[in-house]
Amino acid sequence: MKNRVRYVTILILFLCSWSLVPLGSCDFHPGYTVEPVTPDMDPGTPLETVPVDFWDLPPGMILLALALSVSSFIGFPAELFLFIKLYAFLGYRRISQVTILSNQARSRIYTRIQDHPGITYNALVRMAGVKRGTLRYHLILLKLGQKIMAHEASGSIHYFTNSGLYSDPDKTVITYLWNTTDRRIYQLLMENSEVTRKEIGNDLGLSVSTVSWRMKRLSDDKIIWIRKTGKNVRYGICPDVRQYLEKYLMPNRETVQITPMEQIRESA
C-alpha cells in the first residue's frame, strides 16, 4: 500500500512539473514591450479560429489534459488514505485512554452512563444537557476509546460503561427497568411464581393485547417463560434470571440507580 501511494504521488508530481514546461518553442525570448494603442493605430483584424485535433496539441498540453481527466480517480484514494493517516495522528491519537475524559462535556456524559447504566440516547440528552449532535460525537469517541458499550434491546440502544460490571443477562434485565410498565411487570412476577395474562392486565390496567405484546418481548429475551394451559396463559420468571432481578428490585439490594424514562421526562 505504501509503495502504491508513493508511485501515485510521484506520478502526480511528474505530471504537474511537466505542465509547467512552456508550450511551443523553448528559445529564449528577450521579453515584450507594451505600448498603448493610439487612435491612429490599426489594432488589426482578429484571426478566425481553426479547429485543432486533440492529438495535434503540444505534448505538455496533452499530458496535462490526461492528468486532469484521471486526477479524480488517482487523487481520491490517495487523499482518503492521507486523510485517515492525518486523522489517526492528529485526531484520534490525541484522545488516549488518559485524556479521553479531560473534555468536560464528554466526562459529564460518561458520568451519567456510569450512574445510570442502560441509559438511552434520549435520556442522555436530557440528563447530560448537551445537544444531540454533540452527544453523538462524544458517544463515538467514548466507544472508540472503549470506555462505554452499546446494548440493543427491543429496538432501543442502551449504554453501559465498559467496566466489566455488567454481564449480558444484567444488561438485558436493566434495559427493561427503564420503562415503568416493564418494571411493574418485573415486580409482579417476582412476588408471584405464576401469573395469568388476565391478572397482569387487571393489576396494571393493561389490555390483553398489550400484555401479550409486552410478555412476548420479555420471553424473546429469555427473561420469562410462557405456559399455555387451555385458554389460560401463565407467565413466570426464568430461574437463571431471578438472581439478576433481585439485584435491582429487592429492598436494600439495589446496586445501581435506574430511573424510568417517565420520571426523567417529568423532571426535565
Structure description:
It is a single chain. This protein is mostly helical and 268 residues long. It folds into three domains: 1-19 and 59-94, no CATH class; 104-161, Arc Repressor Mutant, subunit A; 168-267, Winged helix-like DNA-binding domain superfamily/Winged helix DNA-binding domain (Arc Repressor Mutant, subunit A, Orthogonal Bundle). The chain has eleven helices and six strands. It has helices spanning 2-19, 59-91, 104-115, 121-128, 132-144, 168-177, 180-191, 197-204, 208-220, 239-249, 261-267; strands at residues 119-120, 148-153, 156-161, 195-196, 224-229, 232-237. The strands form two sheets. The protein has a three-stranded antiparallel sheet with strand order 1-3-2, sandwiched between helices. A hairpin with a 2-residue loop joins strand 2 (148-153) and strand 3. Helix 1 (2-19) crosses helix 2 (59-91), helix 6 (168-177) packs across helix 10 and helix 8 (197-204) crosses helix 9 (208-220). The protein is elongated, with a radius of gyration of 35 Å. Residues 19-29, 45-49, 89-93, 252-256 and 264-268 have low confidence and may be disordered.
